[in-house]
């Protein structure tokens, strides 16, 4: 399961837009990565025209970028509507989804209406599911504005809302027409959001690309300082690996699940504390530490791997200890993970650097991991 | 747009199960039609096994057939769960959908769980959308128990819930694994439900098969008397035509819209009166009269066609006059139809017997039609 083409060696020396294709037959599309994409007329070429475009954003991101996006879209659409959602994972629910449906119907949006998701993972997931479901499907474009969304959630067509009983439980596989990663917008991210995004960047190393893990370690200071070239490479390599995985397994029948390294523990933390307490990336950061511990505990990896993962997660300014929910509660929350089968939790574990596997683990081992890394 | 193979001439002389294939590449499946399918072990062969099967039905149908279905499934699944929804179009909404999600999550249903939709169009549409969205998609089987569901709504993968602002506005194209039309269950239908189903049977004549229209006229008394052979043929020929249309245009980018003959007016009646006042098939019956009137008014068809459609709809014991909502309200409701584009209503009209077209119509013509057939 090692990703081919270690293109990290071609570290970009300029920031001309990069295109990473996602090969999914008649649902194929491009990820475009570059600084200033929002202001580049070429960005909008080839997208379907319609009488209505709708920018779905949130109350935090919209004041920063919605007007620029609306101005860029105006030449191509009869009308550009804006819908601002409340901000945060706590609002990734049916009520927020229905805000979109209600507004689209009130404005007479038809099946050709193009939705533009302008925001982080929550905006992208909710807007994507709205696009999948409105009139049984309208086209949509991802315009991710957080590092986390650029390297992970906006790519690959997973859309969802949360259910009180579990994260991302209601949703669809529904591909966007295009993903536009404008690196310029990362400048307004909070430090906390930047670190949360780095969790998903780090993830790609152990699951698919040992060399990329080394590159991240070497460049973590530059990434935290938002060096544009370091960010450009991190986004590009992350998207390449994600594109490679998704192109082989769009609907997560196998390989794709490796992208959930750290997520089984992380989702339990998010759900256990109530959505929005921890950022998704914080849960993933801490969850990777736990999943690394479990990989070591089950004899798949040497103890030095856990130390290495703790160190990189810490250096990315992410939590390495989970909240004291109690092991029973963790296990209960993890049993309703989507990767579970017949009530058996299936963990994404590392079996060698750059190679992940999915397998169950004895409850005692999981409890030992939780004892070591929570509270 | 005339359906090939006028197999109505091969009127079945016995009720051995009939299979009508739906060709949709890797989403292909069979419709099986026959008396006593629920009790035939062959019915379940080839379906995926899992630790959990879930029968979703409603409080009216479940007491009649859920136990039989549960007994038939028991050998193949570790556990068979039952979820009974409230009955009726008024409950085809998010609250009902969430009943399913909540119960599935509470019971630990995983991605392999197979849903069985046991009921009419509402149960099938809601269960299908639940299957499309639960954990981003689980397998499901349609077990339609009304004539309307057997000849139309269970076939072709359209799933949806209603929104207060419009019918079937939120949903997905999501194909079942199989459709099981047990003709035996039609015996418990109310006369009103039987007539509502006949509306969708009649529909297939003018849009795709002139000879079938003649057959329906000749056999309407037998159909109303629930003659098993007449019902078997009506279901079979309807499914053949639907399979032919859906096989060419799964996602309703063109041809498939002809299946909505009568539905633009019909949906407006349903929404205007409040869901559940009129049955869907009653709206379609009356809507076909209106769409026929409009076809005549626009010079596509001779006046005798309207007379013929009024006569057959009346004989099927369906309404031929719409409620007095006022023309403005009708137009407003029809403008949010999913076939509308840029606020322009697109009607399914008949241009010759067995051939439908989709086109806009001048407001004056629509108002004249409404004046002639409402109030």
Automatic annotation (TrEMBL), chains A, B:
Essential cofactor(s): NAD(+); Co(2+); Zn(2+)
Q: Which GO terms describe its molecular function?
A: 3-dehydroquinate synthase activity; metal ion binding; nucleotide binding
Q: Does the UniProt entry include the keyword Cytoplasm?
A: yes
Q: Which GO terms describe its biological process?
A: amino acid biosynthetic process; aromatic amino acid family biosynthetic process; chorismate biosynthetic process
Q: Which SUPFAM superfamilies match?
A: Dehydroquinate synthase-like (SSF56796)
Alphabetical list of HAMAP family matching this protein: DHQ_synthase (MF_00110)
Q: What name does this protein carry?
A: 3-dehydroquinate synthase
In its UniProt entry, the species of origin is given as Aquincola agrisoli
Lineage, broadest ranks: Bacteria, Pseudomonadati, Pseudomonadota, Betaproteobacteria, Burkholderiales
